[in-house]
Amino acid sequence: MRILIIEDEIIIARFIEEQLTANFNCTTQVALDHLEVAEAMPQLMPHLLLCDINLKEKQDGITLVNELQNTYAFEVIFITSYQSKNMIERASALKPLNYIIKPVDEPSIYAAIKLAEPLIMGNSKLGRLSGEDLQRYKFTETERTILQLILHKKTTKEIADILHVSPYTIKNHRHNICRKLDLKDENNALLKWTLLNENLLS
C-alpha cells in the first residue's frame, strides 16, 4: 500500500509516517505543500492520501484533493483540527474513508488505516491514473507502442531494433512521454509508471 502524507507541519507528518511504517506494510512519502504534492503524485501513485485540510496556502486540502481526483485514482482520509459542520460537509462531498480530528495520536491513526486497508487492497483501480485520464495525454501510436515495450522491460536499444529506428529517436520519444506524464526523465521512471498502470495500457 502506497500512502502520501500531505501535511505542512513536518513534525506531525513524520510522526504519522513513523506510525504507518511501524504498523503497516506500506510505502510512504511526505509532501509539505502543493508543489511537493504535484511532484510526488506521478512518482508514488498512492493508493491513499492522508491529507490535512489547513495547508496554510490559498488552496486548502479539500480543494487540492478534489483537483487530484480528476487525474488519479486514490482514497483519502482527512486529518484536521477543523470540526465545523460546514467543513465536514465539504470534506464529505469527496467521500473520504475517514476524518481524523487533531491532535492525532497512535490509536487514531492505527484505527483509521486498519479499517481502510481492506477497502484499499481490494480495489485494483487505486494507485493509478483515473481511467479516462490516459486519453488526455494524447499519446501517439508510436508512444503507446513504446510504453507497451517498456512494460515488457525492453531496453532503449531493443525498442529501437524492434521499431527499426535509432536509439536516439527512442530516447526522444521517451523524453516526450515523460513530459506528458510529468515524470522525471530518468531510466526507471517510465518502467515504474507502466508497471503501475498496466491495466490502462492493455
From TrEMBL:
Domain of life: Bacteria
Pfam family, one: GerE
Gene Ontology biological-process annotations: phosphorelay signal transduction system; regulation of DNA-templated transcription
Organism encoding this protein: Candidatus Pseudobacter hemicellulosilyticus
Protein name: Response regulator transcription factor
SUPFAM superfamilies according to UniProt: C-terminal effector domain of the bipartite response regulators, CheY-like
All copies of domain HTH luxR-type, residue ranges: 130-197
Domain Response regulatory: 2-117
Gene3D superfamilies on file: 3.40.50.2300, Winged helix-like DNA-binding domain superfamily/Winged helix DNA-binding domain (1.10.10.10)
SMART domains: HTH_LUXR, REC
Keywords on record: DNA-binding, Phosphoprotein, Transcription, Transcription regulation
Molecular function in Gene Ontology: DNA binding
TM segment ranges: none
Lineage per the UniProt record: Bacteria, Pseudomonadati, Bacteroidota, Chitinophagia, Chitinophagales
Modified residues (4-aspartylphosphate): 52
